[in-house]
Amino acid sequence: AMATPRGAMRILLLAIGAVAWLLWSSSDAFLSAAGTSSRSRSLTSMAAEVEAAPAKKAKAAWIGPQKGSSVKILRPESYWFQMGGTVVNV
Predict the structure, then answer these.
(1) What's the pTM value of the predicted model, to 2 decimals?
(2) How far is the C-alpha of 3 from the C-alpha of 16, rounded, in Å?
(3) Whole-angstrom Cα distance, residue 32 to residue 42?
């Protein structure tokens, strides 16, 4: 059945009020995001992030046999235990 004119008017006013509230509450976000202030602010924050970045640690010196050197396998669980060989890949 059809809604009464009074009920339809209430729904219409409620919808208009909701739309107006959404537009009014989000207008501050649109205004503050636009303009030159946000650009200068973003550049400032980017510069602060660059300054705050920790320095990278230098790589530690490699400990172990170099490629091509002769080695003896000392792991008892290994198939090649107590066999000699040449390092191919480290």
Answers:
(1) 0.32
(2) 18
(3) 12
